[in-house]
Amino acid sequence: MTKLSVNINKIATLRNARGGDVPNVVKVALDCESFGADGITVHPRPDERHIRREDVYNLRPLLQTEFNIEAILRPILLIWCLKLNRIK
């Protein structure tokens, strides 16, 4: 069976364009899970123009489904991912 992982990068892009925290990336991700998504996908970039580092760290302990991080292999992004293993 095919599983659905929702990419929330565009939510983060919209939030960043507006400034502030609306829409709230964490709330959207949790809503997606409650609506039946099998996972949440993010594509962090070193310039943080979409998902930000704090988004990744805030999401990790709260998500109950798969957390899929697809990124360019750069040292800073690798460090983020290694730190995530210590959060949950």
UniProtKB/TrEMBL annotation:
One of its GO terms (cellular component) is cytosol. Pfam families: PdxJ (PF03740). Keywords: Cytoplasm, Pyridoxine biosynthesis, Transferase. InterPro entries: Aldolase_TIM (IPR013785), PyrdxlP_synth_PdxJ (IPR004569), Pyridoxine-5'_phos_synth (IPR036130). One of its GO terms (molecular function) is pyridoxine 5'-phosphate synthase activity. Coiled coil: none annotated. One of its GO terms (biological process) is pyridoxine biosynthetic process. PANTHER family: PYRIDOXINE 5'-PHOSPHATE SYNTHASE (PTHR30456). This is Pyridoxine 5'-phosphate synthase.
